[in-house]
Specification:
heterodimer, A: 193 residues, alpha+beta, Immunoglobulin-like, 2 domains, five-stranded mixed sheet, four-stranded mixed sheet, 28% strand, B: 373 residues, mainly beta, Methylamine Dehydrogenase, Chain H, six-stranded antiparallel sheet, globular, disordered C terminus
Amino acid sequence: MNALSHHHPRARRRRLIGSLACAVAGAAVLAATLSAALSLAAPPPASQTAAPKWLTWNAGTHTASLTLIADYTSAISGYNFDGAGKGKMTVTVPVGAHVNVTFSNRSAALTHGFVVTSYAKRTSTGPFPPAFKGASSTNPTNGTTKGKTEHHSFVAGKVGKYALLCAVPGHVATGMWDVFQVVKSGAAKISFK
Amino acid sequence: MTVNRTMVLVGLVTLLLAAGVLAGKVVVTRELTASSAHDGVRWQGLPLDGYWQRTALAVWTNSLLTDPLHSSVIWAGTNDGVWRSSDGGTTWRRAATGLRETPIVSLGATTTGDTVIAGGDDGTVYRGTRLREQGWSWQAINRPLGQDHPIFSVAPSAHGQVVLAGTFGSLYRGVSSRGRWAWQRVDHTQDAAVSAIVWLPWNPQRAFAAVFGVRPAVISTQDGGRSWHPDVRGLPPILPTQALLAPSTPSHQLILTTMGGGVWRRDRTGTWQDMSAGLPARHAMPIVAVPGNGTAVLYAGTMGYGIYAKQGGSTWRRLGQGMMGGRYTSLGLAMALRPHPTLLVGTALGVFRYLPPHPHILPLRNAAVAESR
């Protein structure tokens, strides 16, 4: 009886500790599972994911590869390229550079297009003739819908300051324009204010 | 015998269908244009099953305006100056020979109808005044406001002594005194565009302005434009604002359109309420109101989703087919009531007008409704 009375509480304590450990472990597994499930169901917003490499430069082939994503963030209510508008992104390439643009649009509601045009056009309503042959998306006035990725190439043939803007009517007035600079020499680069 | 019976049946069915169309869908009324039974609501606006037709004005059109005095006269602010139609948009003539090739972004008119204000894309504000003989005289009434910034919005006061003009980052107020104009910056809007300005028809000292993409989205004045304050009760903090409309209706409502942030109605209490139901992607660009029997019919252009109409508490409904795609983005909208009621929309491709499915049954006398504005 004594022995029983002596061992019984210890055994109960062990069982209790065991149960608690199981519960904690179960909760941890459940939390991990839920967390994984949630992360699959809802991908993190663009600002939390690693940003694409917006620009790469191949000095050997004198080629700049530029990624342009319209409506990348909610900046300016989505009227932005790579998250920037109102001139806050500047793409700089040396004269004669081949520029390969990969263009897409994240907006489910609106079409967007891009064109590299005269810098003065950034405060204009349109139309927006390309400064270089091929320096625009397909039918830039109509815009490109979400889900399509376009590839365009052009040669930055003349030194100067240009505007990179959305040619869909009404969009540039919102501030959907950035800067495209062609300089005498050097490597291509991109900067954000 | 069998053939004869079949022919009689087909004839009867055809007659019944025709009667149904005439009785239930396109019944001409004395009010505005046509009424029809949709969702049990007696529709007083343009028939919804019409179509869009290109007009002779095929230049990039940023703004349209119905002349306050003559409902057959439509003004167009284009990338090639100001144009005017005196027959509801059928034919167009250059209205300001001195403004050839000058891009005009915005238009406004005094309620007296003798002055039209045009905002240029280089920051210049132009004033057109009616000459005693036929024709108009135009002159710049400012030095360019801002640094080559377009005048996105202009609004002359009822008699034209004060003009409000909005551009990137600033709202300006111009005052005429003895033929000279003095301009003052009356509000800063960071680097955002002042997308719309409207004077309230029922209070000559009150005006509202919409600001794109920064807070506050709407500002208002109670002293004729000298000072401005936020007016955003019920609104989201930031909106891609586009147009403001103050219809001349007893309800004293104010309507704000946005490029994806909803369409909002400000009631007498000063609270903004969402009225976007039925609009694709909750967005609208220009908007006009046409007074009807007790309630105005609203027409709103969208960014490549066509043109929509709304009456009272109903949802927005598509007006005709077509006008789809970014290049058909509605940049300006105006209602002409003579010689036939029709809606005109300005786009990058020029001006289009809306034609009802049965234009021959539209009565001419209905235009009288708009003359009371």
